[in-house]
């Protein structure tokens, strides 16, 4: 029997999926969580074989939760499901040790098959998401540029970004200017939109 943890902040989706997976003879949902923090609390309390995590949850996202989960339970296989399969997210997930990555449009039967595959040591990445990631290439942004651009995404002024990033306003302007140039954007807001669409921030 393959023991599963399901994590999704949308209660209806999570419970419906749990019921569908429980119909499989070899799968058993032994735990559920609604946030990244709950995932880690459950992981400290009990063991499971495969964790199916939503990419976007309150607290830490699915990828951050996956990293910590794999530290707590190295033998667990993690599958990420997402409604927003951006190229940067896929690359981050694979770097974090995630073994499966698929869209929420996937059928329960396909998900069950992927769970069995990753439990047996395999990997599964949705072909369309994989093709998009290859086409997008790697992020041209340095980690610091990405951090500053993310802080700028909500329209915060340079002085506020500088305070939150513990940098001087001049350094923030330099990072933003560099990010705008690298992304061939009109301004920092345009650069943030592009970076977010590709999953780079």
Descriptive overview:
There is one protein chain. With 201 residues, the chain is α/β, with parallel strands linked by helices. 53% of the residues lie in helices and 15% in strands. It is built from 10 helices and 6 strands. The protein has helices at residues 11-22, 36-45, 62-72, 87-95, 108-119, 127-136, 143-152, 158-165, 169-182, 188-197; strands at 2-7, 27-33, 50-54, 77-82, 100-103, 124-125. Strand 3 (50-54), helix 3 (62-72) and strand 4 (77-82) form a beta-alpha-beta unit. The longest helix has 14 residues, at 169-182.
What is the H/E string? Answer: EHEHEHEHEHEHHHHH
Please tell me what the overall shape is.
elongated
Alpha-carbon Rg, integer? 19 Å
State the CATH class of the largest domain.
Answer: Alpha Beta
Overall pLDDT: 90
- The SS-based structural class is alpha/beta
Per CATH, the superfamily of the largest domain is: Response regulator
Low-confidence residue ranges: none
User: Into which percent range does the helicity of residues fall?
Assistant: 40-55%
CATH architectural category of the largest domain: 3-Layer(aba) Sandwich
Total DSSP E strands: 6
Tally of separate helices:
10
Count the domains.
Answer: 2
- Proportion of strand residues: 5-15%
Distance between the termini: 38 Å
Strand adjacency order, main sheet = 2-1-3-4-5-6
Largest sheet: 6 strands, parallel
CATH topology of the largest domain: Rossmann fold
Question: Short description, anyone?
Answer:
This protein is of the alpha/beta class and 201 residues long.
